[in-house]
Amino acid sequence: MPRLGYLLPTRERIMEGQPETAPLLALAERAEALGFDSVWVGDSLLARPRHDPLTLLAAVAARTRKVEMGTAVLLPALRNPVVLAQQVATLDRISEGRLILGVGIATDVPNIRAEFEAAGVPFDKRVGRLVEGLALARALWTGNKIDWDGRWKVKDAILGPTPHRPSGPPIWIAGAVLAARLRTGRLFDGWFPNSATPADYAAQFAEVKAAARDAGRDPAAITGASYLTLAIDDDAARADARINAYLEQYYGMRPDVMRKRQMCFAGPASGAAAWLKAYADAGVSHMVLRFAGDHERHLETAARLKRDLGW
Asked: Rounded to an integer, what distance in angstroms lies between the CA atom of residue 128 and that of residue 146?
């Protein structure tokens, strides 16, 4: 049965000059009360300023009881993996095993390149840093003594605490290009794109599973997820205008360009239900929804669609 997640509007609230966290935590509680399966937070240091995701999710974990929570998506290349391993292990303990670590390599655009430079991280090394850094974190999560001789030098190290789950939280990787799909199958626990259409998803997810099989892994153990943006309104033209304005403000780019890069829906609830079902039929078992404003109304509408779809 497909699961629905909700992305907290951390970026939007910073853009609106409303950095207070109490309303964000109230939205997380509301999502849980309405039956959402997970709550998510995005990540950026300077390119798209917002709250730190791991810190905020710790507060979400303390204010909720059942929902899973995750990063959509964290940029691990910006962080020292030893520090990140400790932070994630602690957060997994606070949430008692409800954490999902969604990760990505970051889009190649000028402001994100500048963000990497400000953090002292070479942008062109971000894929290798992600892969090795997460491998090091996983090694530390075992609680065993670790020696590591790579980009990072670790000697006779034991991490404490270890995560709530012995293997650590599941790691889902974003990206719909072939290299990202193959990397997911070889190394990670879930595929989490934002640009695959329902028509493309099944074939691309099959490539993820084939890569897992070739690596000697169980393809059935890999979660098919997707990050989707919606503006739900009975007036289709108004919904379309809303999502265009939202994308242009959020990214500082033309909305028609962004709608080719990220999957979006604008229109009435009946159309949204059909769109989400098409993803479920293509193999998506966990959908993370980002709403173009009006969050209380969108949460209630999406919760109703979830019930109507029998999810």
From this structure: 20
Helix (H) or strand (E) holding 71: strand 68-71
Mean pLDDT of 183-194: 98
Entry pTM: 0.97
Could you tell me which residues come within 8 angstroms of residue 115 by beta carbon, excluding any fewer than 6 positions away? Answer: 44, 45, 46, 47, 78, 106
Looking at residue 87, its amino acid is: Q
Structure tokens at 189: 């626990």
Pairing mode of beta strands 99-103, 146-149 = unpaired
Give the E-state strand segments of 150-306 in sequence order. 153-157, 171-173, 190-191, 223-232, 264-267, 286-291
Is the CB of residue 126 less than 8 Å from the CB of residue 136?
no
Q: Are 27 and 311 in contact (CB under 8 A)?
A: no
Supply φ then ψ for residue 75, to 5 degrees. -105, 85
What domains appear along the chain, each with residue ranges and CATH number? 3-308 (3.20.20.30)
What would the two tokens of residue 14 be?
């910073």
In order of 10, 11, 14, 27, 302, the CA distances from 17 in angstroms are 11, 10, 5, 18, 27
pLDDT tens sequence across 262-275: 999 999 999 999 99
Over residues 248-263, the pLDDT tens digits come to 999 999 999 999 999 9
Statement: residue 176 has pLDDT above 90: no
157, β-bridge pairs: 146
CA nearest to 72, candidates 80, 60, 82, 64: 60
Write the single-letter amino acid at 175. G
Give 160: exposed, middle or buried? Use CB within 10 Å, 0-12, 13-18, 19+.
exposed
